[in-house]
Design brief:
Length: about 375
Amino acid sequence: MFLVIRLRKKILIPILFIILLLLIISVIYISRKIHSVESIAVTEDIIAQIENIFRIRNKAALENNAEALKYHYDLSTKYGTWAYEHEVKRIKYLHNWSEKQGIKFTDIQSVIKIKYVNQKGDILTANFIRSTEYHYSYDDQPDVDNLFRIGTYHLLSIKNTDESWTITKEWYTDPFEDSLNLDNIKTDEYKNYIMEQEPRNFSDLNKRRIDAVHYADLYCGAAGTAENDFSYNKKYRDYNPLGGDCANFASQILFEGGKFKKNKIWNYGNGATRAWVNASGFKNYWINSGRASVIAYGTYDKVYRASYKLLPGDFIAYEKKGDVTHISVVTGADSKGYSLVNCHNTDRYRVPWDLGWSNKEIKFWLVRVHY
């Protein structure tokens, strides 16, 4: 018995020593980590520096001058280079779309709302919301202003150099992501058809459709305005961290605004049913339940003419590789009658419905909702 106790002591003492050592190492590591990354106050100077970065970026996009961005990225780093290359592709996409559409961008302005800023050495990392408003006019309507807003959520790292702040890393969900690798797509047919169209009159919409659009405009999140604090409806859970909030938002629009009644299949309470919160489940429910019907389905070239039949309060489902991955709700039309949509993830306010048009793997479900 005495021997057993001695043996246990011989075993326990080294184990306890190892545990104590690990605890000390953990405390040192956490302490160093805490002190190496410091949360700092959001000053007017920091806000001004970040706003200036996007002023330069918007000007480069407006002028189709990607070369002007090169000096504002740290191209000596992998992440800085990737961030720069991504913006070059975005500019190319925007101007490819404008050629297809027969429009010219006339102004691009961003508003930012910073959540927090951390500092590590000479690197500042900011987490913020960016609401960017794009103005455009059609080639044959130079005096008619159209606009849309896109809201994005950014994590941006910048470094102070001798001359200015440069971007070392950036992450954000990009609504143009599906279309950045562009082929040489012939756009004359699309442009000619779009330019032939006239404004559409929605003055005879029923009240449920009007209320659905009002709700969609009010809670479009980062694509909204400071008046609504760029927020979602706080009555509902934000499903973006769980894969996306687009179907949840579309369901809210149809329930809160459109006054469609919930049921066992399409429901939100303590949780959400698949038909409420899942993009594919949402599309299937509305079509199969008889509450909606398909206007057209297919790639952009197959459906763009039919898109003029969409009314505010209808919806579009975006299918990629056989799976519906996104839902947006129609909220209006521009000066050529081109349908505009609102959605979450990425947040959009009155954005042309066809972002993603040049990706041949994307198919569109244009769906009439029966109010």
